[in-house]
């Protein structure tokens, strides 16, 4: 199953219509193969029309698998961040921010392959438009579009940064997955052999390291941030591999990300493998960065499974549902960070959302699999819960910073099934007074 099912199903750009809100499902019966004569009509068979979409962002498709960020803006805008618009010239304020920079790699090389600049613009505009909508869905605000890139700030004034950072990681994983696995192959199928790739850099600046202010003069100014961590997002993007996401060490530290999601970038120099792992900020300060494994991150969602070398989106036969006991609301997997000390109830549901009971009786085993320094310190990385064995529901408490997993094994091999659910837990973050 594809992420944007309606958009890419039966994708054949030659047959698209003039509608700005087109859906490719109308041509699902057509062949994906284009003859040379059709390609001669222009890239995607779109002629010089300026208002056609290659990608249709369908929020319903995305919401089937991922929850929107609780920090999301109701309106999409570009420029100065709405939460900080009250800052006047010569005024400043200190506040945390997550900086996100994504760049389209290889678009310049398409000149000479596409028919004209309008078709090149069409490709780039569709990718950037998708990035705008996906970032908004996960709580980001577009600061600017620059060249082939997009700069987004994930932050809400007076809010702790955990949910903003989770939103940035979610956006980077979804965008990279889609461009690599759905959009790129579709473009290649119609004769564009040169791949279009993206790279992303993300960094977090705490309150004492990010200055908000206006640059320029009244009428010609920009409300933005001054921080090494803002600059770092662009630098990290430049260091990222194709279809890669690079994160600063502050990102790792704030959420205490699982080490299995992180690796050090390496390169060859004179036949010797070298590590590319830090920027020298000053004589006494080196800032470390990491390659973020967005594919492993997506696999921490119950809706994602590995199929060969690819990831597919599925609707599992059984799933775990998580309910916050303090509010009674459902917690959607990896959607935001829960505070410590919250009691959660997990239930086993079938694919139709109906609660299951253990009848006829089956063997059931529950287990908590924690990550991070806090759980490691207390020797609580793996916690079996025999009290709830044989039950289709369980209650647990959040206790440690990090991304943790509840695991439920039902039945005995070879007819057993394993259900998993991931939860982010935050620490106490002191906002500026």
UniProtKB/TrEMBL annotation:
Signal peptide: none annotated. This is Adenylyl/Guanylyl and SMODS C-terminal sensor domain-containing protein. InterPro entries: AGS_C (IPR040511), Nucleotide_cyclase (IPR029787). The lineage of its organism: Bacteria, Pseudomonadati, Bacteroidota, Cytophagia, Cytophagales. Residues 320-410 form the Adenylyl/Guanylyl and SMODS C-terminal sensor domain. It comes from the Bacteria.
